[in-house]
Design goal:
The protein is of the alpha+beta class. Among the domains are: about 65-155, Ubiquitin-like (UB roll) (Roll); about 435-550, Ankyrin repeat-containing domain (Serine Threonine Protein Phosphatase 5, Tetratricopeptide repeat). The chain contains 27 helices and 7 strands. It has helices at about 30-35, 50-55, 100-110, 130-135, 160-170, 175-185, 200-205, 210-220, 235-240, 245-250, 265-270, 275-285, 300-305, 310-315, 320-325, 330-340, 340-350, 380-385, 390-400, 415-420, 425-430, 445-450, 455-465, 480-485, 490-495, 515-525, 525-550, and strands spanning about 75-80, 85-95, 115-120, 125, 150-155, 505-510, 515. The strands form 2 sheets. The protein has a 5-stranded mixed beta sheet with strand order 2-1-5-3-4. The chain is rod-shaped and about 125 Å long.
């Protein structure tokens, strides 16, 4: 069954390769950094300069919230608007904290990028490495019991030239982290976008650049910013399977339930390729496992359709609701049965799914499929029979699926298996006492459709289970007439051996018209079949005459 799941192949492949020889003039910060690329990496405990904060190794970034009160007195810091003087924020800080620490916290609270702000104390610009304790002794607002400080915040205009260079650098890999720091320090806007709404953080996330994402996120890059297609950085990293980048963004408090314009979530995009590691990260970040896209697709449904058994177990452990996953119109069990995913079918049945789950009529119009038989009333058993998945069909029968369930047009599992010539599937259904006489709306039975398509072995199997070789459609067409119209001489011979009526006549059948099997074979030009049928018809006439004479 081909369903309209979100497909990573349809994503906008924005980032492109770049010529590494075209290095901009600011390629290196200092000679020392070029000789020792790792020299700027610092632990989270030392933030004398903002570069130290930005260049924290992503593996250590999760320690940002850890602050120790040892060795420092507590202060209350009022951050005021540098123009109006109104209070913007009140922070509890330590006298050992520095201005860089304050900027980082202001960025987290107010969303002002760290390099786009200046802090002043008594109208004097305060360097980033200044400890707050040093300001206490010069502040007129210092009290003996509860020290309170005031600083004024001024926003610095972004530099348009450096902003353009930052977009270019992150768009064209490889991105040099030192160059990014240099541009951010030069007041490049980390949230600038191109004509499609892609920011530097979007490009870095799509390319899987963990260090670049780390720098941009810590410099005030907006984690919830969306492109014109509705992609947030986490959606891009999840769609492209970048586990480390996704982990970093989640630790930076990206929304695990973000949605594209079509409603696809990071968890849905991770379920598409079956990334168990990424799904674990998203579930730990409390992504909603039952959240569906606009067309009703859920992570559970995608995992079932793609055959990702391990992902199914993960989602069930996270309390994924199989009934919620079926609200979009396709039950996960139906999707798995159609594709023949035995492991997934077993997993779903163990979770207590209804073995005869149906497609409701109310949503049928929104369901897409490559198989014309898909109709209201199609059960997982019918789907497995149509596709010839004997293993799945055996699982469903063992779980007490109804062997005689039929779609709205009357097509049963046996009818569809016979039509496609799936001998093993037909045998399993017959052993489960499937009704050989069931017909579709026009009266066609399993043996008739098998005869029409030349499924000799299936016809013989049905005959051994007492299928009627003369079961006629509403217009009188019989299995023999259907086989004659298609020119299947071997099937005609098998039906005649089972005493099929060679003189039966069709009355205006849409395919073969009117007439007996031999007459129809003549019209279709099946010479050898004509000889067989004419001989059989003549024998029957002679037997009829003999009986009348007696």
């Amino acid at each position: 069954m081909a369903t309209s799941w979100p497909d990573s192949a349809s994503a906008v492949a924005k980032p492109t390769s770049a010529d590494s020889s075209s290095s901009p003039s600011w390629r290196c910060l200092t000679a020392e950094h070029e000789q020792q690329p790792g020299s700027l990496l610092r632990s989270c405990g030392s933030r004398r300069q903002l570069e130290d904060f930005l260049l924290v190794n992503p593996d250590e970034a999760s320690r940002d919230g850890e602050r120790s009160d040892e060795g420092g007195g507590k202060l209350v810091l009022n951050v005021q608007n540098g123009l109006s003087g109104s209070t913007l924020l009140q922070l509890e800080v330590l006298d050992t904290d520095c201005i860089a620490d304050v900027k980082i916290r202001v960025q987290a609270e107010l969303g002002v990028p760290v390099f786009a702000m200046k802090l002043l104390s008594a109208s004097d610009l305060v360097p980033d490495d200044t400890e707050l304790g040093a300001l206490v002794h010069t502040s007129a607002d210092c009290h003996s019991t509860s020290s309170t400080l005031k600083v004024s915040l001024l926003r610095v205009p972004f530099d348009s030239g450096n902003t353009a260079e930052l977009l270019k650098l992150t768009k064209d890999p490889p991105s040099d982290q030192y160059c990014i720091v240099h541009l951010l320090r030069a007041v490049a806007d980390p949230n600038a976008t191109d004509c499609d709404g892609w920011s530097p953080l979007h490009f870095a996330a799509a390319l899987g650049s963990t260090h670049s994402c780390n720098l941009l996120a810590r410099a005030g890059g907006m984690l919830q910013a969306s492109t014109k297609e509705g992609y947030q950085p986490l959606l891009l990293s999840a769609e492209r399977g970048h586990v480390e980048v996704s982990r970093l963004l989640l630790h930076s408090r990206a929304d695990p339930c973000a949605q594209r314009l079509d409603g696809a979530t990071p968890l849905i995009l991770a379920a598409l390729p079956g990334s168990t590691e990424l799904i674990t990260e998203l579930c730990q970040a409390r992504a909603c496992v039952n959240q569906a896209s606009r067309n009703g697709t859920t992570p559970l449904l995608l995992a079932a359709d793609r055959g990702h058994g391990a992902v199914m177990r993960q989602l069930f452990e996270m309390k994924a609701d199989i009934q919620e996953s079926a609200r979009g119109g396709v039950h996960p069990l139906l999707a798995a049965a159609t594709k023949g995913h035995e492991e997934v079918v077993a997993c779903i049945l163990e979770a207590g799914a209804l073995v005869d789950a149906l497609i409701p009529e109310s949503i049928l119009s929104s369901v897409t499929s490559t198989t014309a038989w898909l109709a209201v009333g199609c059960t997982p058993l019918i789907a497995a029979a149509q596709e010839g998945h004997a293993g799945v069909l055996a699982q469903l029968l063992a779980a007490h699926a109804q062997p005689n369930a039929a779609a709205a047009d009357g097509a049963s599992a046996l009818y569809l298996a016979a039509q496609e010539g799936h001998l093993m599937t037909s045998r399993l259904l017959l052993e489960a006492r499937a009704d050989v006489s069931m017909s579709v709306d026009n009266g066609a039975t399993a043996i008739l459709v098998a005869a029409q398509h030349g499924r000799l072995e299936t016809v013989e199997e049905l005959l051994t289970h007492e299928a009627d070789p003369n079961a006629a459609m509403d217009d009188g067409a019989t299995p023999l007439i259907a086989a004659a119209w298609s020119g299947h001489e071997d099937v005609c011979r098998a039906l005649l051996s089972a005493r099929a009526d060679a003189l039966a006549r069709a009355r205006g059948n849409p395919l073969c018209g009117s007439g007996s099997a031999s007459e129809i074979a003549v019209r279709c030009g099946h010479a050898t079949t004509v000889q067989l049928l004419c001989g059989a018809a003549e024998n029957k006439r002679l037997r009829g005459c003999d009986i009348r004479c007696r």
